[in-house]
Design the sequence.
């Protein structure tokens, strides 16, 4: 085997998921952070590790060990997104880069070594570049084959965890963050490592039982026997363990670049100025995609302001973005509920628009006889959205939950409905029967429910009412017709209750003191024949909805 | 359409009913077509249908409004609801409104007329609660646009020069008593008044909603139905009572310039 061809450089950024989250949310680097997937710790920061948090730990156990742990959900897409600029920058100095996974890059060593003079010099150049990007804690390994090189890169840290110093300063003379394994010495280098690095958990257990614990011991087994016993996967692992890896670096083809970025000097502090300044950028953004017959159906807008604030949000489009739509999204992201001439809290210095979803134009071609009627609907609704803002036009769906407000899910036009957090078809004990009230108040209205002597009806701990309700009045805030009519009817301004039923207790999340909810529901028919759904909580009586 | 009545109706009524059904099926006026409406409204609306390009005031009942939306929505039409933040989505879906073709604009604020004008262009049915008083000039401009686009506007509130007004005259819930039971179904008396075909003051008893969340006319005859309603009837088309809130007290009477601009533009285009 030609050793030269197998030489590989691996650049490894430790704890990349943690770094990505830190970068996105602007968390202090020394803080203890853990990313959770499926209830287990997926990745954690150095700070967390010092306090005993480990990968694979249960969330509760991790929080026990490190009470100030900052916990986030693991987001694989974020990893890739944050890593992309790093890959692009590295590609500028070393061509032919393979993204092994977000945070780990592999590249052939031959070209860079010849260009920069030696493997050491190439590694130093890489370190200098990553330092420019603000990545100080990078390990670089050079060895025969990607696997050995990655182990070498990891070894830079495992061996000397405390002495990893900023790459910029140590780049000149054999920095500790570079580990070069001499050609042909890879097998020896990886020999003491655990066999679990090449084999799956089941095989690892089996090998351990057979007394094979390290890669060196595994490599010492006769290749023919390994293949016979463990099949192709075992032979592949055996090759890796003995430093005869067949895999080569498969350089990625850099994707065409569609994103646009605009810097504003001097910074702009008005939304309309920004929208105007970005007009050309938006046209160019769409035009570049159109040139390769693509349309954009989802994009991400990133905005940096002068004070260092960062806002990033994805926007979807039910059809595809036109330049005007792109500008609208930028405006909406900045203005929120305000109007276009609102001043901004801090002037904007940078605006970046990245396509997240693109599709072939062929799938979005208009029919020969014009578009579908839905297209007209979309244009009309987009017009209303540009008048009132993105969130003002919503489509609705029915979600799960006990309280009526939980059961309606409103999604701005153009956004995809989020995956239902609560299933609609679950039983939801305590929810209402099939007849749903036609008017559901967003803010519950205060009401008074009185008994025959004019005292407020109360419900005791056992769910029994103090006395049957006789009169009922809706608070003045309602300003509704029934109240104005009935105000004159008797001294309390309350109308007689014609029929009532309840209380029906609704108990939610009693184990969680913050979200616990314990209310009683009542149905009331007032004198006008209008039915109300009342709620009694600790503060008093409220009208949740009306059957009108 | 309704099933033919088995009971022999008086001659004149019979003729009127047949004429109404013919009207429902064909366009009587130029460019006026029937909008498919829930069969329960056969006796309430002339010809049992709404008409394109008309303004119908729906007073005092969200369920009545939903019942009017349910027919067109089930027929494949898009519907928009403007200015009603309390529109109960779950009830709407149970009553047969297709949520995937329903668009809500809960808080249009002062721009509600401009928003309605924009929606009228693309939606066959638009329901709106006016946030401010509408001047007759604005109303007639929007109505011209409605006729041009063939859109039906349902207004929960006041509207100068509306074609028809529907309202609840009585409402009675069943299934609930003093301390037991729960709301199951409701019988209401819907009355309709207005101009043209609506001038005959139709009144009818409907289940709104019925036991299995359907809308249906209450069969006339047995039960305490007729005697109760008889006296109140003829003179006042809609009594001032209403069950649900109408629009909040009008605050600004000054018309919005932007709305005028938009509506005016459409008119120029129409002309």
Sequence:
């Amino acid at each position: 085997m030609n050793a030269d061809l197998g030489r590989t450089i691996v650049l490894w950024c430790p704890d990349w998921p943690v770094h990505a989250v830190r970068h996105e949310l602007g968390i202090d680097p020394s803080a203890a952070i853990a990313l959770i997937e499926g209830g287990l710790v997926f990745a954690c920061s150095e700070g967390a590790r010092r306090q005993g948090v480990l990968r694979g730990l249960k969330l509760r156990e991790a929080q026990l060990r490190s009470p100030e742990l900052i916990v986030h959900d693991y987001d694989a897409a974020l990893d890739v997104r944050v890593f992309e600029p790093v890959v692009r920058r590295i590609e500028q100095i070393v061509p032919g880069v393979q993204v092994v996974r977000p945070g780990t890059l592999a590249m052939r060593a031959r070209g860079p070594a010849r260009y920069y003079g030696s493997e050491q010099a190439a590694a130093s150049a890489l370190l200098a570049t990553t330092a420019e990007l603000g990545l100080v804690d990078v390990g670089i390994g050079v060895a025969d084959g990607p696997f050995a090189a990655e182990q070498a890169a990891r070894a830079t840290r495992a061996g000397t965890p405390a002495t990893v110093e900023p790459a910029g300063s140590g780049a000149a003379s054999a920095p500790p963050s570079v580990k070069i394994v001499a050609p042909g010495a890879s097998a020896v280098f990886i020999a003491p490592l655990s066999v679990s690095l090449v084999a799956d958990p089941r095989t690892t257990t089996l090998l351990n039982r057979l007394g094979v614990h390290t890669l060196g011991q595994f490599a010492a087994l006769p290749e023919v026997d390994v293949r016979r016993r463990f099949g192709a996967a075992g032979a592949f692992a055996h090759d890796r363990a003995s430093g005869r890896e067949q895999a080569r670096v498969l350089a990625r083809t850099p994707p065409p670049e569609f994103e646009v970025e605009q810097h504003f000097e001097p910074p702009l502090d008005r939304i309309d100025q920004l929208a105007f300044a970005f007009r050309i950028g938006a046209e160019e953004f769409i035009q570049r995609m159109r040139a390769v017959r693509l349309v954009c159906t989802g994009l991400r807008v990133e905005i940096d302001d002068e004070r260092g604030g960062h806002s990033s949000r994805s926007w979807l489009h039910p059809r595809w973005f036109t330049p005007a739509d792109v500008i609208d999204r930028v405006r909406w992201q900045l203005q929120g509920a305000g109007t276009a001439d609102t001043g901004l809290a801090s002037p904007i210095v940078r605006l970046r628009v990245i396509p997240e979803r693109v599709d072939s134009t062929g799938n979005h071609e208009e029919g020969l006889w014009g578009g579908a009627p839905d297209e007209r609907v979309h244009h009309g609704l987009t017009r209303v959205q540009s008048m009132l803002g993105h969130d003002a036009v919503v489509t609705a769906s029915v979600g799960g939950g006990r309280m009526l407000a939980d059961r309606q899910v409103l999604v701005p036009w153009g956004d995809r409905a989020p995956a239902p957090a609560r299933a609609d078809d679950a039983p939801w004990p305590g929810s209402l029967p099939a007849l749903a009230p036609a008017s559901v108040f967003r803010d519950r209205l205060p009401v008074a429910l009185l008994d025959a002597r004019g005292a407020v009806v109360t419900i005791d701990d056992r769910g029994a009412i103090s006395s049957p309700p006789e009169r009922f009045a809706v608070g003045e805030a309602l300003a509704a017709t029934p109240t104005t009519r009935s105000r004159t009817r008797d001294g309390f301004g309350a109308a007689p209750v014609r029929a009532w039923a309840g209380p029906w207790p609704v108990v939610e999340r009693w184990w969680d003191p913050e979200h616990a909810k314990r209310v009683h529901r009542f149905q009331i028919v007032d004198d006008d024949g209008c039915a109300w759904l009342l709620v009694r909580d600790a503060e008093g009586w409220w009208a949740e909805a009306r059957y009108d | 359409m309704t099933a033919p009545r088995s009971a022999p109706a008086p001659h004149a009524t019979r003729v009127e009913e047949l004429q109404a059904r013919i009207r429902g099926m064909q366009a009587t006026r130029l460019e006026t077509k029937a909008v498919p409406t829930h069969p329960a409204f056969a006796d309430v609306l002339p010809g049992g249908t709404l008409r394109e390009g008309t303004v119908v005031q729906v007073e005092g009942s969200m369920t009545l409004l939903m019942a009017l939306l349910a027919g067109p929505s089930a027929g494949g039409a898009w519907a928009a609801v403007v200015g009603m933040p309390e529109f109960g989505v779950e009830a709407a879906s149970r009553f047969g409104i297709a949520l995937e073709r329903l668009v809500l604009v809960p808080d249009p604020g002062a721009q509600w007329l401009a928003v309605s004008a924009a929606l009228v262009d693309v939606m066959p049915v638009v329901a709106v609660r006016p946030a401010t008083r509408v001047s007759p000039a604005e109303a007639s401009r929007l109505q011209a646009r409605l006729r041009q686009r063939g859109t039906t506007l349902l207004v929960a509130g006041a509207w100068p020069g509306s074609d028809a007004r529907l309202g609840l005259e009585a409402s009675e819930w069943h299934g609930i008593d003093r301390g037991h039971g729960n709301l199951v179904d409701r019988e209401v008396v819907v009355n309709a008044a207005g101009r043209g075909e609506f001038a005959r003051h139709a009144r009818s008893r409907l289940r709104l909603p019925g036991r299995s969340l359907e809308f249906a006319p209450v069969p006339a005859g047995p039960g305490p139905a007729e005697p109760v309603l008889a006296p109140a009837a003829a003179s006042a088309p809609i009594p001032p009572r209403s069950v649900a809130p109408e629009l909040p007290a009008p605050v600004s009477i000054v018309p919005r310039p932007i709305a005028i601009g938009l509506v005016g533009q459409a008119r120029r285009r129409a002309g």
